[in-house]
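Whiteboard transcription, Tuesday session. T.W. wrote the structure tokens on the left side:
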């Protein structure tokens, strides 16, 4: 199986240094989810929560390189999603080689571009920007405090449970929310901001009681 390195991903995969930096940022923010992993054939399938939709990125490690495919609209092979995914695959490789200090150090180099607090703040900010840019559709539930559906431009639907429209607290069934450890995602932000635009929100909230089975 081919052994990935940061240098290989930067020089042989990324189409440019700018694309590489964007891929590093995607990797740091964790806006992806590995939905399939075939260790026998060294094949991985990731779902990416991207700026203008959800994309699927596939990579396979060969004996002398990698095969990659991403369904994003980028007109080349070395897109930021592929870079980010390969950095995660590299991280997985290195975790299995705990005795190889140099390999683990190469992952640390990628992770140290930003501090944990800076990564978290940037990640939340990016999700807020995506919530404003992407043309989502909200299928509202019976109560503001409760379950709703948010549909993406690619017709993917996620169940969003809103606890508090004022703070945006809640849950979402999307892969990003389930893995990012931020307590939010672009769908949750979008839904909260949409509800805040409703002038009757305060009156409706005063009459609602959050379902007992969903209390935090």
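and on the right, the sequence the group agreed on:
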């Amino acid at each position: 199986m081919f052994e990935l390195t940061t240098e290989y991903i930067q020089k042989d995969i990324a189409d440019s240094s700018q694309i590489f930096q964007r891929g590093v940022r995607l990797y740091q923010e964790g806006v992806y989810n590995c939905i399939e992993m075939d260790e026998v054939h060294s094949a991985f399938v990731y779902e990416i929560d991207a700026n203008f939709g959800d994309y699927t990125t596939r990579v396979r490690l060969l004996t002398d390189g990698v095969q990659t495919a991403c369904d994003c609209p980028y007109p080349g092979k070395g897109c930021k999603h592929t870079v980010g995914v390969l950095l995660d695959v590299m991280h997985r490789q290195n975790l299995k080689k705990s005795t190889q200090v140099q390999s683990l150090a190469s992952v640390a180099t990628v992770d140290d571009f930003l501090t944990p607090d800076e990564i978290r703040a940037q990640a939340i900010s990016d999700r807020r920007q995506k919530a404003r840019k992407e043309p989502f559709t909200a299928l509202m539930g019976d109560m503001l405090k409760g379950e709703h559906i948010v549909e993406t431009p690619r017709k993917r639907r996620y169940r969003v449970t809103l606890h508090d429209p004022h703070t945006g607290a809640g849950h979402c069934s999307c892969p990003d929310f389930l893995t990012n450890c931020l307590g939010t995602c672009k769908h949750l932000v979008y839904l909260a901001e949409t509800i805040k635009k409703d002038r009757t929100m305060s009156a409706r909230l005063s009459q609602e009681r959050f379902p007992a089975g969903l209390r935090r």
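Someone added at the bottom: The radius of gyration is 19 Å.
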